[in-house]
Structure formats: structure tokens, C-alpha cells
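Sequence, please.
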């Protein structure tokens, strides 16, 4: 794996190795504290962040390296200097580029014109490192990833796309329950179906909530993606039937409930569920750190961890 741009770069063995390494790092972080000694990563953020920034910075620190945070929220990337010029400059100084960006094409341009690994820390189409932490959390609580039935409810956004990708390659059953015309990217869905055929994965998109029975995992995200100024109340009528509340949890048979955060309580998820006994939301957030450590170590020093 040279870059992590979409999640399609990995086969099932690659995903499982990353999850296993993250579990080892979580159990014994001190054993890896010199893994990236003297190495650095540029953290290029066009969007604000709590979990992603903190965990990538700490991941580099915990492995003996250093993360340099670049606040690009004012539109500097591709304006003040071209994206290729950012890539060519930064590649002379750092060992990795981590990008939380508005457009997937920005990451692809960084990867083509730079000379160091590029990690997608969120784009308009994918959020691959997030769902690696999600499936790590699922394995912790359910003991497996293959065959696990995951129901995603809400907007078919970048998280939904990446759940389909990772679920396909891990052999899971992922169904996206979305309002009409709010489903995941069709091309990504079709590519995920093709990739998952070798692993026995089952993927589906539907708006019919009557099919939400006998799922292991309920997963949701905000109804309005970051950068979209649409008020939540403006889409409430469309999305409210897809809210994860106590009645839905009970009728679905789910064992755990997930949310990638930040959550808009009372909209996509209720307090009683998010703070309830089936919520693994904060385990999921914690595991971002460990999966980011595993990912960076695998990309930057594979001989140390493989």
C-alpha cells in the first residue's frame, strides 16, 4: 500500500492486519514508541476537526514522530499555491501527507505530484481511516467482521461510501437505509459490490425501513455534511424517520450502536441511545487513535511492523 485514498487499496488480509496491529498497539503502545522515530507528517486540514486532528497528531507522537498541523481552512490549498506545488514542497520536508479536504481530487493530485504517502483523513467521497476504526470496534464487541450485519441510516455521504467499501472487502453485510435520492455514490457502490464478491459480502441500498430487522450494528452520521450550510431543521422532515432512537434499536435487534461524531443529539440519534448501554460511540472514537497509529506505521515503516 503506497497511499490510502479510498480504501480500495487494501485486500481483506490488509484490512485484518491493520486491525490486528491497531489492537496490539492499543494493548501495548510502549512497544511501538520508536517505530517512526525522526519521521514527520504534514496534517493538511481544510475542514475543522476534533477527533481526526487529535488522533493523527498523537499517533505520530506515540510512534516517536511528529505531526505538523497546517490550517488550510481559509482556502489556501490550490489558491495561494497550486496543489502540486504544495505536494512537491512538503515532500522535501516530511514523510507523509495527511489530508482532510473538501475534494477527493485534491488527495489524488497530492499523491500523483508528491513523492511521499498520502492518507485520506476525509474527503467529499471517502473517509477510509474512520471506517477502519469502526470495524476494529465491531471486532472488539462482536468478535468478528465477516458476516456482521451493519445497517447505516441517514445521508449517503462519505462515511456511508466507506462503510460499503470496507464492509465489502471484510465480507460483511452492509445495508444503507437512506431517503430517496439521498443514497451513497452509485459508482462507489458498484465498485464495492464487485470487490466484495470474492469475500461473500452483501451490500444493499434501500429507503424501506420495514427491512430493518435482525441487524447486529446500527450506524448513523449527521444529516448535513460539514461545509453544507443547510440548517438541520430544513431536512428534518425527510430524515427524521431514519433517526436512531430506542424504539428503532429495540425493533432492529441490534447489539451495538455507532456514530462517527460529531453528533447532533435529538436529530440523527437520541440521548437515550447515544448514552445507553448499546452505544459504543466513544470506543469508536478512541479507536481512531490506534488505527491511525497502525496505518501510519504500516505506510512509513512497514519493515518494523509487518
Amino acid at each position: 500500500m503506497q497511499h490510502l485514498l479510498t480504501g480500495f487499496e487494501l485486500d481483506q488480509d490488509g484490512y485484518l492486519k491493520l486491525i490486528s496491529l491497531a489492537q496490539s498497539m492499543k494493548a501495548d503502545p510502549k512497544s511501538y514508541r520508536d517505530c517512526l522515530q525522526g519521521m514527520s507528517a504534514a496534517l493538511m486540514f481544510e475542514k475543522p476537526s476534533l477527533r481526526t486532528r487529535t488522533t493523527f497528531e498523537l499517533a505520530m507522537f506515540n510512534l516517536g514522530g511528529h505531526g505538523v498541523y497546517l490550517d488550510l481552512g481559509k482556502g489556501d490549498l490550490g489558491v495561494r499555491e497550486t496543489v502540486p506545488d504544495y505536494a512537491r514542497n512538503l515532500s522535501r520536508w516530511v514523510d507523509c501527507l495527511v489530508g482532510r479536504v473538501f475534494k477527493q481530487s485534491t488527495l489524488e493530485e497530492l499523491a500523483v505530484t508528491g513523492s511521499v504517502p498520502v492518507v485520506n483523513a476525509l474527503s467529499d467521497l471517502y473517509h477510509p481511516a474512520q471506517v477502519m476504526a469502526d470495524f476494529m470496534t465491531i471486532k472488539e464487541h462482536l468478535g468478528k467482521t465477516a458476516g456482521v450485519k451493519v445497517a447505516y441510516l441517514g445521508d449517503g455521504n462519505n462515511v456511508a461510501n466507506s462503510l460499503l467499501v470496507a464492509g465489502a472487502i471484510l465480507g460483511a453485510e452492509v445495508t444503507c437505509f437512506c431517503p430517496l435520492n439521498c443514497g451513497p455514490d452509485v459508482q462507489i457502490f458498484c465498485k464495492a459490490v464487485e470487490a466484495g464478491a470474492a469475500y461473500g459480502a452483501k451490500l444493499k441500498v434501500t429507503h424501506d425501513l420495514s427491512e430493518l430487522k435482525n441487524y447486529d450494528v446500527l450506524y448513523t452520521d449527521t444529516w448535513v455534511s460539514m461545509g453544507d450550510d443547510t440548517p438541520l431543521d430544513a431536512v428534518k422532515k425527510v430524515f427524521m424517520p431514519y433517526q436512531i432512537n430506542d424504539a428503532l434499536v429495540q425493533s432492529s435487534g441490534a447489539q451495538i450502536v455507532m456514530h462517527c461524531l460529531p453528533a447532533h443529539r435529538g436529530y440523527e440519534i437520541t440521548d437515550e441511545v447515544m448514552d445507553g448501554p448499546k452505544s459504543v460511540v466513544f470506543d469508536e472514537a478512541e479507536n481512531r487513535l490506534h488505527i491511525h497509529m497502525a496505518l501510519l506505521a504500516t505506510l512509513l515503516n512497514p519493515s518494523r511492523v509487518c
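The mean pLDDT is 96.
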